[in-house]
Amino acid sequence: RSSWLLLAPLLTPPVPVITAPPCSLCPEGAHRFQWIRNLVPEFGISSSHVKVLSSPAEFYELLKVQIKAAKQRVVMASLYLGTGVLEQELVYCLEETLEKSLQAEGSPDLRVSILLDYTRGSRGRKNSRTMLIPLLQRFPEQVRVSLFHTPNLRGLLRLLIPERFNETIGLQHIKVYLFDDNVILSGANLSDLYFTNRQDRYVLLRDSPEIADFFTELVDAIGDVSLQLQQDDTVQMMEGMVHPYQGDKVAYCEIANQRVMEVINSARTRQELLHEKTFHSSQPGSSLLSQQGSQASGSLKPEPDTWIYPLIQMKPFGIQIDEMVTETLLTEAERDARIYLTTGYFNLTQAYMDLILGTRAEYRILLASPEVNGFFGAKGVAGAIPAAYVYIEQQFYSEVCCLQQQERVQLQEYSRAGWTFHAKGLWLYLAGSDLPCLTLIGSPNFGYRSVHRDLEAQVAIVTENKALQQQLHQEQEQLYLCSGVVSTSTFEQPSRYVKLWVKLVTPFIKNFF
């Protein structure tokens, strides 16, 4: 019965593929990527505010430290919150910080907003909801828990698909963790594996109020169109809001689109005005006295050498900014440029595969070996998913060989005993450079799900600063160090054997995992 139901998602109508409009990169310098600000807000910051983390333990400790230090806001968006001891410790940290804010003089300032996925966060008797209800009961005026439910899971489909399999239709997949004006972007969820032995990527943007405001507003916008968790473990929509699976789907998606695009466009307008103001104030002859006064008072910010661009992908709502930017980066990458691309789930869209195979840059693609795939050893049908990924990898490698592109496009498999692999993103090295000037980091996996089904967000970090470029280079090297190059002999190993039924089923279900 479950195997048959796994194919139930095929009943949903296909999403039309929309290609990105052509866009040319500016020719000069590391900051040739200013065209991105035509689509999203551009945040100029000092590279000294950016810190690249390397380990799950470092990520977990930072989360606890930041929660305890928060005074005004804690905003956390994730797929789910786990139910183990380490996750409970995070909840205790939130409770302690909220308690302190209650005891402070005057009305408590601290607000906690948590956005999770409804289906993943409701899985099992003990789940993300039951972990957070005590906070809602103790601090009803300060805590908000929003559970996003995809509008594509509705009607008969919603009744037929069992728990776990219902997550294949669409999820809230954004991972952003912010505390006052400090923002952590990652692909990691709030679960013990991601705090111990599941390798991901993490970057901290310190003292970045404009970026923190943007992601707060983004999470609020998605929260407004999500189900609100109540103290008795029920859920309800905000008053006057269209229901995601009981209401009109088109009306719901239009409202969601308006909410999210309003956040993007208003932030973009704010940043453009700020950029113009900064540009004019830095021109010769412009209010020299006021500039000297600002310097004397220490309020003049250092000239930015790093730029942050938030890239949002929410195809259910008709928002495809991340897809457009990623396709343009792959299209415009010049000969002798190098792109290091990594994904825990190698299942690239056809558009991304065509661009990699048809453009001039060198590619080093890092993916999970079957043993470090998150589904390795899973029970039932899910246990065959690593084999499906091997089959997809083998098909792509065969195409690379057929086109005689093995030197230009190289696959590498991450392998590390006792660990699983979940890192995603890319690093772009311009021709002739030993250091990357751009990285993408966040939640997307470059697959069909990321592009068409889920809510995703990542940032493009562009920097001219050599020290930050070195940090990003070291991060890339550290990940690739645990890998081996894929060759024809890789697929002759017994662990790469793919059963016939997996080969037959994979083309039909590859868009759902």
From TrEMBL:
Its main location: mitochondrion. Residues 168-194 form the PLD phosphodiesterase domain. One of its GO terms (molecular function) is ATP binding. Its EC number is 2.7.8.5. Residues 278-302 are annotated as: Disordered. GO terms for biological process: cardiolipin biosynthetic process. The keyword Signal applies. It catalyses: a CDP-1,2-diacyl-sn-glycerol + sn-glycerol 3-phosphate = a 1,2-diacyl-sn-glycero-3-phospho-(1'-sn-glycero-3'-phosphate) + CMP + H(+). Keywords: ATP-binding, Lipid biosynthesis, Lipid metabolism, Mitochondrion, Nucleotide-binding, Phospholipid biosynthesis, Phospholipid metabolism, Repeat, Signal, Transferase. It comes from the Eukaryota. Pathway: Phospholipid metabolism; phosphatidylglycerol biosynthesis; phosphatidylglycerol from CDP-diacylglycerol: step 1/2. Residues 281-300 have a biased composition (Low complexity). InterPro entries: PGS1, PLipase_D/transphosphatidylase. One of its GO terms (cellular component) is mitochondrion. Residues 1-19 form the signal peptide. It is found in: Mitochondrion. Functions in the biosynthesis of the anionic phospholipids phosphatidylglycerol and cardiolipin. Belongs to the CDP-alcohol phosphatidyltransferase class-II family. This is CDP-diacylglycerol--glycerol-3-phosphate 3-phosphatidyltransferase. It comes from Vidua chalybeata. The gene is Pgs1.
